[in-house]
Specification:
By secondary structure, the protein is of the alpha+beta class. The chain has helices at 29-44, 136-149, 167-175; strands at residues 49-51, 61-64, 81-102, 105-123, 129-135, 164-166. Strands 1, 2, 3, 4, 5 and 6 form a six-stranded antiparallel β-sheet that branches.
Length: 176
């Protein structure tokens, strides 16, 4: 395994609370390298997404990488997508409540309501402008990671403190 050189900032670190900045396109070599490291870091932590502010980089970069998990056995498996300067143009469909976790909020899960669909415009690694619609679990990941770019965390979106539980209790829910 490659050495992990990026540390994940944790809840309480003020850098998780700042607004991320847009990047000029095309990306330079160091920025491409950073994106590779973000993907490595996310995969090493078994994450399905990560945002640059989570490693202390105040740029508008998110990685979206759905794959089947215990909780979402039907989640699509996809190659990680790097979205640079993403903008959610539209969200719609049902409002769906489900459990979320975050690499920056270890050992916790929260019930969060998200839109079923999002349309997102972003720059890809080749500096092309993409506009795509996503649904379900992938739409949830995008909304979660996009929040990181605004300095928001999923704990800000739970309706009540009773909707925050530990990972241990969450695992019990899964098998009950
Ligand atoms: Zn997160």
């Amino acid at each position: 395994m490659k050495p992990l050189c990026l540390d994940i900032l944790k809840l309480g670190n003020p850098r998780l609370r700042s607004q991320a900045l847009p990047l000029d396109m095309p990306l330079n070599q160091a920025q491409h390298r950073l994106i590779e490291q973000l993907i490595d870091r996310m995969q090493a932590s078994n994450g399905v997404g990560i945002a640059a502010p989570q490693v202390g980089i105040p740029w508008q970069i998110i990685i979206v990488a759905s794959r089947p998990t215990l909780r979402y056995p039907q989640a699509p498996r996809m190659e990680p997508i790097a979205m640079i300067n993403p903008q959610i143009l539209e969200d719609g469909g049902e409002q769906i409540q489900d459990w979320e976790g975050c690499l920056s909020v270890p050992n916790m899960r929260g019930l969060v309501t998200r839109a079923q669909h999002v349309t997102v415009r972003y720059h890809d690694l080749a500096a092309g402008c993409q506009c795509e619609r996503f649904s379900g679990f992938i739409a949830r990941i995008i909304q979660h990671e996009y929040d990181h770019l605004q300095g928001r965390l999923f704990v800000d979106r739970v309706k009540q403190s009773a909707d925050l539980i530990t990972e241990d209790e969450y695992q019990k829910l899964l098998i009950s």
